[in-house]
Design goal:
By secondary structure, this protein is mainly α. Helices cover 60% and strands 0% of the residues. The longest helix has 17 residues, at 7-23.
Length: 187
């Protein structure tokens, strides 16, 4: 499948591995792919983000939102809502745990040392497969960074929630990248 990736999409995948290594993560997650997409400039994906109001200066708010989700142990807002329906206040649980064990205690533990490539999580592998399906659905011959971005917005989870909070949804991205309306600028 990687032979179908453009130079920009390959750079995103390599950047995701770099973000995972920098964080000391045991594997490459979907959030690492999003961070790598935010690093890129001059690509279809970066132009689409900018067109939707997520300019480079505003991208730091996405990074902060991903950091906050990591602090919650990677639980999405949908997960927090489901726990709330059961009478569990996730914010209170996180606060109590951090009082006892320190800030960031629920964040995945960093791995020290270790050489070589980080494996991709099940979600990150599914994201790569989704990007192929997205490219095929749009009759594109190659998988670009825009397909990785579209795939991120099409999958449930924290990266899609954070992007949606910033006005970047599958529908709005499709409108910017392929026309057909649906594009709205984030305010």
């Amino acid at each position: 499948m990687f032979e179908r990736f453009t130079k920009d999409a390959r750079a995103v995948v390599e950047g995701a591995v770099g973000h995972a290594e920098q964080a000391g993560a045991g594997q490459v997650e979907e959030s690492h792919v999003l961070l790598a997409l935010l690093d890129r400039e001059g690509t279809r994906g970066s132009f689409a983000l900018a067109a939707l109001g997520l300019t480079p200066p505003r991208r730091q708010t996405v990074v902060r939102a991903l950091d906050e989700a990591r602090r919650r142990g990677g639980l999405s807002r949908a997960d927090a809502d489901a726990l709330s329906d059961l009478g569990i206040d996730l914010s209170a649980v996180v606060s109590r745990i951090e009082e006892t064990h320190g800030e960031g205690a629920l964040a995945p533990a960093a791995k020290s040392g270790g050489w070589g490539r980080r494996p991709f999580s099940r979600g990150a592998k599914a994201l790569l497969s989704q990007s192929l399906r997205t490219a095929v659905a749009h009759h594109d011959r190659h998988i670009g960074d825009e397909h990785l971005l579209l795939a991120l917005t099409a999958r449930p989870g924290t990266p899609a929630e954070v992007l949606a909070d910033h006005g970047v949804t599958y529908s709005s991205l499709t409108g910017v990248l392929y026309g057909g309306g649906g594009a709205q600028t984030a305010g």
